[in-house]
Amino acid sequence: MKLTTAQFKTDFLAEIKTLYATDLSDTSAFGQFVALGHLLRRYDGPNWTRTSERYRQDDVKQVYYFSIEFLPGRLLKSNLLNLGLMQPVRQGLQELGLDLENISAAEPDPGLGNGGLGRLAACYMDSMASLGLAGNGNGIRYRYGLFKQVFMNGYQVELPDDWLRNGDVWEIRRENKACLVRFGGNVWMTPQADGSLKPTYEHTDDVLAVPYDTGMVGDHNGVTNTLRLWSAELPPSADQTYYSQAQRDRIDEITKVLYPDDSNSAGQALRLRQEYFFSSAGVQSILRHYSLRHHGVRELGQKIAIHINDTHPTLVIPELMRLLMDDHHCSWDVAWELTREVMSYTNHTIMQEALETWPIDMFKGLLPRLYQIVVEIDRHYRADKTPIFGEALVNRTAPLGNGQVRMAYLAVIGSHSVNGVAPLHTELLKTDVLRDLYAVYPERFNNKTNGIATRRWVQIANEPLAALIDQKLGTEWRHEPSQLKLLGAYATEPAFLKQLTAVKTKNKQALAKYIQSELGLTLRTDAIFDVQIKRLHAYKRQLLHVFEIIREYLAIKEHPAQVEPPRVHIFGAKAAPSYHYAKSIIKLINALADLVNHDPDIGDRLKVAFIPNYGVSLGELIIPAADVSEQISTASKEASGTSNMKLMANGALSLATRDGANIDIIQAAGEANEYPFGLSAKAVYGYYERGDYHAADFYQADPELKRVLDTLIDGTIPGVSTEGREIYDSLLRYNDEFFVLADYESYIQQQRQISHDFQDQRQWQQKALANIAAAGVFSADLAVARYADDIWQMPHTPLKA
Ligand code: Z57
Question: Which GO terms describe its molecular function (predicted)?
Answer without folding.
Answer: 1,4-alpha-oligoglucan phosphorylase activity
